[in-house]
Amino acid sequence: MINNSYLLGLYGGTSSTTSSTSNTSTTPAKRTQPTAPWTATENVPTASEMVRSALAGRRIVNEAAVDVDLASASADYRKLFTTYQALNTLSALADRAATRGVSASESALLNKRFASGLAELSAYLATAKFEGFRMVDGVAQNTVKTTAAIEKTSTTFVTAPVHEGALTDTVAAFEGDVRFSIGVSIAGGAQNTIDIDLSGMGSTPRTFDNVTTFMNAQLEAAGVETRIGREQTPGATKSVKVGDKTVTLPAGPDQWALKVWGGAGETVSFSAAETSDAVYVTQTTGGRAEMLKFQADGGSAPTATQGLGETFWVDGRAGQVALPEGVAAVRDSAVAADGSVWVLADLTEGEDDQPIKGQRDVALMKFDSAGNLTQTKLLGAASSANGFSLAIADDGRIAVAGSVTGALDAGKSGDDANVADSFVTVFDASGQELWTQRRGAKAADEATEVSFGADGTVYVAGRSRSMMPGAEGALGGWDGYLQAFSEQRLTPTSPLSGLMVGSTQFGTAGDDNVQAMTTSGSNLYTAGVENGRIMVRQFTLDASGAPTLSSTRDLGAAQGAIAGITVDNGRVILTGQTDNAALDVGGATNAHAGGTDVFVAVLDPDLQPSANERLTYYGGAGVDTASDVQVKDGKVWITGVADRPSDAAKTDPTQAYLARLDPLTGAVEYSQTWRAQGDQAVTGSLTVVSGGASVLDKLGLPQGEIMQADSKLLTVATSARVGDQFSITPGNGTRAITVTIAANDTMASLAKKITNASNRQLVATVVVDKKVSPPTERIQIEAANGKQGATISSGAFGKDALGALGLSPGYIGNTGDKEKKAYGLNLTNTLNLSNADAIKATNDALALALTSVRSAYKSLAPSTAAVTNSYTGNGSSTAYQQTQLANFQAALSRLTA
């Protein structure tokens, strides 16, 4: 049998257990501390008892249930033991969640109770006033900085690398017919247009410096201060695995990019006279997400060429850019009025300078025509959200629809925090939120489509398992639904809000959905799969925008899915994929080729059968999918997976395709297929931009303005939402003050709020990080000179701003204060029991927190002798040993109970 004292001794700990065989009589020393709960042997609740008590709704933090067996002990001990018991209960919940065979329903209940218990402990520690030390649920630090950062307005713009090698070499991107214009304007003044034509260099070699010198001469002659130069990226070594060995390859050649310096007060833009349409396709491949740019045939733009570093290039491709890490899925994309592309994606991890608050959030990412990510707007969900559809109005407003689980707007979690609700959020053209509506049913529901009406009304369609607000009733299984929102101000001074003006629910007794929607004048069309059949519905919109069902059309057994629906030249064009070789649509042009084929159906606006109908199948004998579709100039652009064998395994090669069809004749006018990393090319969204391709693509320059100042508002540049909060408790004993994020808050205004809320115990300033390009601004917080600092605590669940700012709750001040030491438990509000990895991380965090509690206990009666490892003879145990001790003691206290 293993001796407990032996194990504890290895790690510099002690055991209160004595041998029952000892005959030695000793006189007990006078106790100076009450018995710690981790050494108690009587009346110790078992792990199962703690779990049952917690799930029964009893408080996890309960001072009355704590036993302090020394009358003279300070009040700190009761608070400390209360904290220990709460942590022990949370550990028991985590251990139960990790047990094999736990049902999904119990796992959800354990996770929910753990989250509320963690919040309960956090609230307790925020108000507990320890006399002998400081203890916070977060970290204890002298100085902190927000990881969230906002780009400082820059006067420079750097392209992607356009040349690789020596500066004396000619640059391939500068060869051929290179003509474009640079627009330079000063506020209040006229724009100067400087035409650049590299043929004017004559026989001068088109090296990097020769070309930039030529361009700068044109700029100087025009009397502007803007200049163009170069930016170097030195060649770096690369390590590769060769069998069991790692081989370091020599450094590659240097790479060079164009760099634009804007003159004081000057706004710079680029344009080209010769353009072609551009088609943007998003795809996932090899565990990452990308956006590809294709140059459509026709137009006058020079032939697209392969850029530096681009992989799996095919003819006609004008660009390839990796989407940020953390993108879990790309759902939709759309073109803005300035030719930029908005991409809707789900994130499981934010960028370092733009963290997300929960486990999954919705991101709106804006890319210029050169593929530069110019802005990311996060929804700011506290737990989890998915974005399914994106629409852009003629006035630039952006609508996003999807589902959210847990809190979103003003901390509201819906009827059930564990059930998904539909949401729609509308932003202005700059990405600033205008209004959000969360309209959930009692059971699960999700918004899958969003569209703007001609009058600006926002239409949201989706599916629900029960009756939606304002609808007449549920029909069974999943039902389809349609809602209309009118943008209004309830009072002249109130903010904009979305007022629901119509709601309808439809479907069958089976499972139904809405997979596509479009508006055309006073008509709205939806398409989906209802009880296994393709159903198209027409709604008439009244003067208020409310929809009324006017016509339906059953196209037969679906055996597939819908990719999109639109109205073009008075025709309804429906696109999707199906195994059904005989859809109920007349005027077949191309026959079904077998397996799963893409289909394009042309219907009359009233959806009634007529001689005007057309049906086109597209594909091979295998599986062809349609992930997205867009109609432009009467032609149908489609992307998806191309002719994959029906019996292919998941890991077998998958090719993607882009095609353009004439929906009236079935003619295939354009087609391109491609491979990708790992032979896994799976496309997502598709967007067509008129005139979006030009000679600027190979130069890495965007069409339109550059160096535009992004919004500095926290609610635009971070995942913080209006109404998110955190609190500050000054170290001088005054009451806690709540800090609330306002719509007009910036880094500077929030820094001022923090300083004031701390009763000037803290100093918060905006600092510039010049180590990154472009430089970014963050908030730095530290204790004021001679002051006691303060404790920053998380806001209520669903309204916490700290996660969006990249701040951990905790004490900020002199952590080296020997008279009053600070202990941070480092328990973040992101700890959860949702999966095995999360449970392990939670258990590790709780073990370290329990160690901190024991350290605080020791500090109340510090030993005058150094702690010695009784079995090794060395000094105090290492950090690793302390962690092992924490794990051992936590387990021992539960096992011996």
Class by alpha and beta content: alpha+beta
Q: For the report, how would you describe the main beta sheet?
A: 5 strands, mixed
Tell me the overall shape.
globular
Total DSSP E strands: 50
Spatial order of strands in the largest sheet: 2-49-48-44-45
Report the total helices.
11
Strand content: 35-45%
Low-confidence stretches: 1-25, 864-880
Mean of all residue-level pLDDT scores: 88
Q: Quote the distance from N terminus to C terminus.
A: 18 Å
Report the C-alpha radius of gyration, rounded. Answer: 32 Å
Helix coverage percent: 10-25%
Structure description:
With 897 residues, the protein is of the alpha+beta class. Helix content is 16%, strand content 36%. The strands form 13 sheets. A five-stranded mixed β-sheet has the order 2-49-48-44-45, sandwiched between helices. A five-stranded mixed β-sheet has the order 33-34-36-37-35, with no helix packed on it. A hairpin with a 5-residue loop joins strand 25 and strand 26 (458-464). The protein is globular and about 100 Å long. The two termini are 18 Å apart. Mean pLDDT is 88; it is low at 1-25 and 864-880.
Key structural traits:
disordered N terminus; single chain; five-stranded mixed beta sheet; 897 residues; alpha+beta; globular; 50 strands; 36% strand
Secondary structure layout:
Blueprint: H1 4-10, H2 47-55, H3 75-97, H4 104-127, E1 133-136, E2 139-141, E3 143-145, E4 150-151, E5 156-158, E6 163-164, E7 179-186, E8 191-197, H5 208-221, E9 227-233, E10 238-242, E11 245-249, E12 255-261, E13 266-271, E14 275-285, E15 288-295, E16 317-322, E17 327-335, E18 341-347, E19 361-367, E20 373-378, E21 384-392, E22 398-405, E23 421-427, E24 433-438, E25 445-452, E26 458-464, E27 479-489, E28 496-506, E29 516-520, E30 523-530, E31 533-541, E32 547-557, E33 560-568, E34 571-578, E35 588-590, E36 597-603, E37 614-618, E38 628-632, E39 635-641, E40 656-661, E41 668-674, E42 682-694, H6 696-699, E43 704-706, H7 714-717, E44 725-730, E45 737-740, H8 747-757, E46 762-769, E47 776-783, E48 790-794, H9 802-805, E49 810-812, E50 821-824, H10 836-860, H11 879-895
Parallel strand pairs: 1-50, 2-49, 35-37
Antiparallel strand pairs: 3-47, 4-47, 5-12, 6-12, 7-8, 7-13, 9-12, 10-11, 13-43, 14-15, 14-42, 15-16, 17-18, 18-19, 19-20, 21-22, 22-23, 23-24, 25-26, 26-27, 27-28, 29-30, 30-31, 31-32, 33-34, 34-36, 36-37, 38-39, 39-40, 40-41, 44-45, 44-48, 46-47, 48-49
Helix pairs in contact: 2-3, 3-4, 3-10, 10-11
